[in-house]
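Recall that a protein's primary structure is simply its ordered list of amino acids. Everything else, from secondary elements to tertiary packing, is in principle encoded there. The following example makes that idea concrete.
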Amino acid sequence: MFQDRIDAGRQLAAKLSKYKGRKDAVVLGIPRGGVEIAYAIAKELKVKLGIAVSKKLPFPGNPELAVGAVAFGGVVSLDDSFVLQHGVGKDYVEAEKKKLAAEIKRRYLAYGIKFPNVKGKTTVVADDGMATGHTVLAAVRALRKGKPKRIVVAVPVSSQQAAELLRAEADEVICLDTPEFFMAVGEFYRSFSQLTDEDVINYLKLAKAAAK
């Protein structure tokens, strides 16, 4: 159980200490909750903070259930077997992909930040937890196109299935807890308040000011 995202981020930073002070390292948070985690990590490691916007692609009629995700650059991670098994139509998926791509562009404009340049960098991708893993996986695939030196996924808690999914594509996965029974990310935090775009912008400003 974590007190809050800052507490979880600090615990993750302790596991990432080998990257402390590295000029070629960057920590990217997945908005919104992942940015708070990433801020805590970046602050402890004294490295740059950025964002990697990735949005879950919801099951028809159930926005809480993800069948995949879309990341910046239009990169998609889709649970093909789930989509086939539940008869999720191609037209629905395509329509959602377009909608999410527009929302991702809006987020970057709102945050006043560009798609991350990770070429040759050790890139830590942080989120507040992984249920299906597709949101983080889409981000990893999008970042891989930028030719980073190394991609490290850092999350406080994850379902066992999601952790295995990411280990197959990231260079390293740091996860503090992979419980056998996993219902929702929020159940592993004492405080799990929702963040706003303004909160994300504030964390980016704080990190930028600290880097000066």
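The domain at 5-54+115-211 is CATH 3.40.50.2020 (Rossmann fold). Helices lie at 5-15, 33-45, 80-85, 90-111, 134-144, 160-167, 197-211.
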